[in-house]
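INTERNAL AUDIT FORM
Audit reference: QA-55
Scope: verify that the stored structure record matches its stored sequence.
Auditor: D.O.
Record contents follow.
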Amino acid sequence: MTPDLDRTPDLDLWPIGNCQVSALIDRTGRFVWGCVPRVDGDPLFSALVNTRGEDGAGFWSIDLEGGSTVTAEYRRNTPVLVTRHVDAAGNGIEVIDFCPRFRRHNRQYRPVAFVRLVRPLSGSPRIKVQLRPTRGWDGTRAETTNGTHHIRYLLQHEVMRLTTDGPVEMIMAERAFRLEREMVFFLGPDESFNGDVGVVVRQMLSDTTDEWQDWVRGLATPPEWQEAVIRSAIALKLCQHEETGAIVAALTTSIPEHAGSQRNWDYRYCWIRDAYYTVQALNRLGALDVLESYLAYLRNIVDESRGGHIQPLYGVLGEARLEEGFADALAGYRGMGPVRVGNQAYEQIQHDAYGQIVLCNVQAFFDQRLFRMAGHEDFEALERVGERAWLSYDKPDAGLWELRTRQSVHTYSSAMCWAACDRLANAAHALGREDRRAFWQDRADTIHAAITQSAWRADTDRLSATFSGDDLDASLIQLLDLRFLPPDDPRFLSTLSAVEQGLRRGSNMLRYATEDDFGLPETAFNVCTFWLIEALYLTGRHDDARALFEEMLSRRTGAGLLSEDIDPVTGELWGNYPQTYSLVGIINCAVLLSKPWSAIR
């Protein structure tokens, strides 16, 4: 509930989307973030990071005149948002927000469009509609032209059109008017709307609801924590650009990791690592459509690398250059700039990507449910990736935390290179190519021995996060998920104990507790806490794992989601949102910790 329409930005945001575009809606029912024509495009709605002046731009609000209390919820098993506004006199409205997505003419219909339906619920409500899109990164309001039933918004690189059965001139003047019937608002391409806008939009709402509920119905959810798993799965699906299969790390840019940190990054791109974890989690729920689309994206990336270096991230169309710049006209989240566009990490060396590419692909050699199973040609393409892993496992890189000013041989990166070789041996066996199985297994064994020798520190009785130091890092917990070490291995148990003692802050886990390019980190990294939960459970501490998981679930936003980071003292969420890593953690832990369906049938 939100009395008096407090507009202070926070991460209590509700995503809608259709796997082409998305928007974030704040606790007062305003669109405050959304880009066109894709998630990595220019901002149409930028109020989340555009906080200069109270009369700003970059939002779309539909408010009751005189203020109201606002509640929000999703339609069951969909990203269709229903927001209800009620004022002190009992006048009420309902706003339904969604992006159309459904099958039409045997194709997926997912336009660059945002839809709002507004209905009177009680009394004699008077509403004011304020649609103030920004031209782009300059933060200025788009100029308009209009017709009888539409308003055109002239953006920097394209034109958007609002088609409505509401009073166009009152909307343009931002004047309040009485809502006496349902009205619809379709903000989409600059094209004439075909048909009765009210009839068509209501059918779009029905078809979109059915499409999402059908998708959720196919998920193999655990019996416990189903709501959390389903909501996380839907948000992960929204992070996939369906046309190419790319999976972005988050829907936003430049939400700081903590207040005033300048750790503001653009996450609207496809990290090989983040996408691997996303696919892994959704595979556990049986969402094979995401895997198959992403594998098509990866095949193009591997083809274009021609056996050479593979970047840690790419654009949603597979673009290699993602030059980082600043949107100086935007003040930033709560005025905490800079607002970055692009991500210079594309230039970094991160060897773990080779393992993640193979790990994503290896299922296709075994899973007979897939439309396209992998064959000999795919294996030979992956062997080129494996060769890069073999050549790189003992070489320095920036690591998974993307340090910008120093490099080391990171244990996590080396373990991912081991996984590339180990899983290639599995794929070769599936194809009956025993000579290649032996070849890759020999390489995997060599890397495994090198890691256990170079990373082990006998004096502190633990594995180090780097070959050259004695460093604690939460990524060491991932040696368990990779099956590099079993949960009862004394080396893993002593390493887990050291990592928990050194990096746990109450109920949260830091990535590391040493200075990096920006000093000491102040917030915990949510996925690291989920990694700890998995490790606790697999090493026999079941009650501790469940208690910590329940506490993490209590930290979610009203939409049931998490951002990247959390303040271990205040519990406030920071970092880009919704963050795929964090949602992956919710799904993986729920699947692992839940009792089986056989326990309740």
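Auditor finding: record pair retrieved intact. The longest strand covers residues 114-122.
Action required: none
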